[in-house]
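Progress note, sequence design subtask.
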């Protein structure tokens, strides 16, 4: 094991919203052991600062499901992959036709913006544009790295099943929570695997030497790419089926258990 790539929410961060001391200690032990750590998340960069502070890490994070590389120490975007305007609007039109009531929001290096009717639950969210998707500035300049599509009272798995064939060859569709009624769309070819692979290459590390952890469908490409992959016990059924190993749930510090075993010279794989 030369590099650890881990999802955050539901994998190392439990529903309580607080990292355990055990998880902090396990991640902190990687650096002194010569093992690189990359956080790989659907979260936009602005949500990662608090994570980095809580964990005490300052390296690189892959955000936006692989589209953005963020320097947690400098609090700056290193690079980002955007969606061409024509592609984004085409997919949005297809989703509007197939999913009555769908509303959109976008993430870009400029920040968050949304259509009227897209709910906002984020505390301390900066002032942002609210307008029909076609009128949002980031859509027009091609800098959108994530399109969010929400249908009130729907199920994320159902939305994803509808979206996948409509996005084929255009965007990457996934979801990171079975609870929230939304799906996330990224530039074509951009997944968590894409983002983590670029960072592994930066470190000169092969996929065979990468251990990845996840819990949600958007983690699947990363788990399939890594030489060794773990699903936490609370993971989506598709993730449990694909990962090469499983571990205890996020609430039981499953990732920390695996890392402790690796550092001690063994594993807790099942």
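Output:
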């Amino acid at each position: 094991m030369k590099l650890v790539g881990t999802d955050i929410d539901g994998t190392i961060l439990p529903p309580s919203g607080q990292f355990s001391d055990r998880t902090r200690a396990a991640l902190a032990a990687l650096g002194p052991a010569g093992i690189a750590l990359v956080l790989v998340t659907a979260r936009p960069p602005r949500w990662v600062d608090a994570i980095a502070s809580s964990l005490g890490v300052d390296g690189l994070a892959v955000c936006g499901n692989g589209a953005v590389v963020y320097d947690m120490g400098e609090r700056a975007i290193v690079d980002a992959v955007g969606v061409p305007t024509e592609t984004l609007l085409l997919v949005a039109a297809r989703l509007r036709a197939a999913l009555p009531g769908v509303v959109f929001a976008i993430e870009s290096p400029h920040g968050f913006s949304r259509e009227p009717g897209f709910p906002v639950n984020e505390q301390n969210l900066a002032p942002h544009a609210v307008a029909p998707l076609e009128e949002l500035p980031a859509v027009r300049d091609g800098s959108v790295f994530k399109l969010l599509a929400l249908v009130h009272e729907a199920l994320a798995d159902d939305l994803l099943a509808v979206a996948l064939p409509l996005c084929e060859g255009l965007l990457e569709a996934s979801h990171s929570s079975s609870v929230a009624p939304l799906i996330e769309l990224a530039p074509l070819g951009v997944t968590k695997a894409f983002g983590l692979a670029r960072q592994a290459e930066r470190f000169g590390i092969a996929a065979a030497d990468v251990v990845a952890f996840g819990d949600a469908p958007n983690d699947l490409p990363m788990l399939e790419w890594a030489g060794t992959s773990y699903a936490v016990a609370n993971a989506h059924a598709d993730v449990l089926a694909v990962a090469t190993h499983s571990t205890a749930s996020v609430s039981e510090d499953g990732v920390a258990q695996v890392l402790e075993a690796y550092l001690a010279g063994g594993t807790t794989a099942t």
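Residues 3-80+191-263 form a domain with the Rossmann fold fold (CATH 3.40.50.1000). Work on this subtask will continue into the next period as scheduled.
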